[in-house]
Amino acid sequence: MINKNVKGKRYKQLIDLLLRNCDCFAFVADRQLMEFEKEYHAYMENVITDMEEHLIERRIQKEWETTRLSEDTAYVYYFKMNNATRQFLKDQCHSLFDWISPERPEDLMFYHKDKCILAVCSHEKYYLVEESVWDSFRLFS
């Protein structure tokens, strides 16, 4: 578990590295925080408008890599990882911990063939990362 935020130029470098090592990514829209679910859902659809063609699926889940909800559920959006979605990730935020509700979706997760490579818990400000990817990232320093 790592608690140090990755931001600015380093965040962009990390996204580039994840593009080379991952085939999809996901983020969470927490339904607990949706006082007006229809409006928030419409907002989320607007956020991903330019990415709809890259959307793999949207699932309603009680748990994901960094969180397990006891009663509530959340929408987890899964996208293909490619040049267009990489640019979206870079344009939307400037750090891993900027992905937090209600302004944005939260809890970024990156996968390679169903294996989680990096998982962020935005509100708790930590992430888990596969060791070989992290070692490669540290070499950029």
Q: What keywords describe this structure?
A:
141 residues, alpha+beta, six-stranded antiparallel β-sheet, two-stranded antiparallel sheet, 8 strands, 30% helix, 30% strand, globular
Structural account:
This protein is of the alpha+beta class. 30% of the residues lie in helices and 30% in strands. The chain has helices spanning 9-21, 37-47, 83-92, 131-139, and strands at residues 24-30, 55-61, 63-64, 67-68, 74-80, 106-112, 115-121, 126-129. It is globular.
Which secondary structure elements does this structure contain, and how are they paired or packed?
Elements lengths: L8 H13 L2 E7 L6 H11 L7 E7 L1 E2 L2 E2 L5 E7 L2 H10 L13 E7 L2 E7 L4 E4 L1 H9 L2
Antiparallel strand pairs: 1-5, 1-6, 2-5, 3-4, 6-7, 7-8
Helix pairs in contact: 1-3
Count of helical regions: 4
Supply the helix-strand structural class: alpha+beta
The oligomerization state is single chain
Helix content: 25-40%
Helix/strand order, N-terminal first: HEHEEEEHEEEH
Shape: globular
What fraction strand?
25-35%
Strand order of the largest sheet: 2-5-1-6-7-8
| Low-pLDDT residue spans | none
Largest sheet: 6 strands, antiparallel
- How many beta strands in the DSSP annotation? 8
Intertermini distance: 20 Å
Quote the average pLDDT: 88
Rg, Cα atoms, Å: 14 Å
